[in-house]
């Protein structure tokens, strides 16, 4: 506040630009409350010279001022306080889910080292009984296994508690109708829908579905020169958590299109426009999955292509439900 007063007294009108960071939203809101223009730029959007080996705050500030003066600033979308709070809760749930996977990996590695294998579907009730019945000759190994099992139980409990908190706070969110509408899509359940909306935000800011695909890093890259055109894999820009959720949902389209029991339970009070888009997505994506597999494409490439097209249907639903 002292800096703003001193600079406004010296120069009059001010315009601020700074890199995105953990304190960026708070600083942006404070500057707006002071009546100043503020822009937040993603670090990946700031141009860097390949041979530049010197980086400090002064050089960064000068570069930000140059691109602001040139009119090349691409500010990021700023969520409101409620949206930011829901995003924090969703990311806490993602961290808890990561802890569950790490705990399971430790248990499996420990048992594999001692030649213990479970040949059925893991982590169900029967698997839990099988784990509880494992015994070792030396007490140190038994204590180690019990420690791993207790850590896994704590992680699962923590994830379940966060799931309950998300469902409890969801009705008070302005984007909750969009979360409900996205669940008309096959493979997009409650947690995935909340995660997508929390990370992407207002989908009406994207002018086209292709722009949203590029934002999530699901468009093919290219490295061409002259007459040589070389294609690359997807760009993988943007949020990798969202891409992982989309790929997880894409695997559900390997089966034939139908309205299963889960979709019927979700369709209770959902709008008709969302149901129509969800059914169109099933017909198109399920058919495309089978055709690409019939041409001999790898399953990972097929799932990526389906995830990219799924973004188009998510964008279409997002245009119908404005916050």
If helices are DSSP runs of H or I spanning 4 or more residues, what is the number of helices? 13
Question: Widest sheet: strand order?
Answer: 1-2
Global shape: globular
Q: Report low-confidence residues grouped into runs of 5 or more.
A: none
Description:
- It is a single chain.
- The protein has 323 residues and is mostly helical.
- Helix content is 59%, strand content 5%.
- It contains 13 helices and 4 strands.
- The protein has a two-stranded parallel sheet.
- α4 (81-113) packs across α8 (190-200), α9 crosses α13 (299-320) and α10 packs across α13 (299-320).
- The model has no long low-confidence stretch (mean pLDDT 91).
Compact overview of the structure:
This protein has 323 residues and is mostly helical.
Q: Which descriptors apply to this entry?
A:
59% helix; two-stranded parallel ribbon; globular; two-stranded antiparallel sheet; mainly alpha; single chain; 323 residues; 13 helices
Layout of helices and strands, plus pairs?
Elements: H1 2-11, E1 15-19, H2 24-33, E2 37-41, H3 57-69, H4 81-113, H5 125-132, H6 139-169, H7 176-182, H8 190-200, H9 209-215, E3 220-222, E4 231-234, H10 240-250, H11 261-266, H12 272-294, H13 299-320
Parallel strand pairs: 1-2
Antiparallel strand pairs: 3-4
Helix pairs in contact: 4-6, 4-8, 7-8, 8-10, 9-13, 10-13, 12-13
């Amino acid at each position: 506040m002292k800096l703003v007063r001193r600079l406004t007294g010296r120069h009059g009108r001010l315009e601020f630009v700074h890199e995105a960071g953990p304190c960026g939203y708070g600083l942006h809101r404070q500057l707006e409350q002071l009546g100043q223009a503020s822009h937040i730029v993603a670090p990946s959007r700031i141009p860097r010279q390949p041979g530049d080996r010197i980086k400090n705050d002064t050089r960064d500030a000068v570069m930000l001022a140059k691109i602001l003066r040139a009119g090349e600033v691409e500010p990021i979308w700023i969520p409101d306080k409620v949206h930011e709070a829901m995003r924090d809760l969703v990311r806490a749930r993602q961290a808890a889910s990561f802890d569950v996977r790490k705990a399971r990996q430790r248990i499996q590695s420990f048992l594999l080292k001692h030649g213990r294998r479970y040949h059925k579907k893991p982590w169900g009730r029967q698997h839990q009984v099988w784990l509880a019945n494992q015994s070792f000759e030396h007490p140190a190994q038994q204590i180690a296994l019990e420690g791993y099992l207790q850590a896994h139980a704590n992680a699962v409990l923590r994830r379940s508690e966060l799931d309950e908190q998300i469902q409890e706070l969801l009705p008070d969110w302005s984007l909750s109708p969009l979360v409900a509408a996205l669940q008309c899509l096959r493979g997009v359940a409650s947690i995935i829908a909340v995660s997508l909306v929390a990370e992407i935000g207002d989908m009406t800011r994207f002018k086209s579905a292709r722009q949203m695909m590029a934002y999530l890093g699901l468009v093919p890259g290219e490295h061409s020169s002259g007459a040589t055109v070389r294609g690359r894999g997807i760009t993988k820009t943007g949020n990798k958590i969202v891409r992982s959720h989309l790929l997880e949902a894409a695997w559900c389209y390997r089966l034939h299109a139908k309205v299963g029991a889960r979709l019927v339970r979700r369709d209770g009070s959902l709008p008709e426009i969302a149901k129509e888009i969800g059914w169109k997505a099933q017909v198109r994506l399920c058919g495309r999955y089978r055709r690409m597999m019939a041409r001999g494409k790898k399953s990972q490439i097929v799932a990526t292509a389906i995830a990219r097209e799924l973004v188009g249907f998510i964008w279409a639903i997002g245009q119908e439900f404005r916050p």
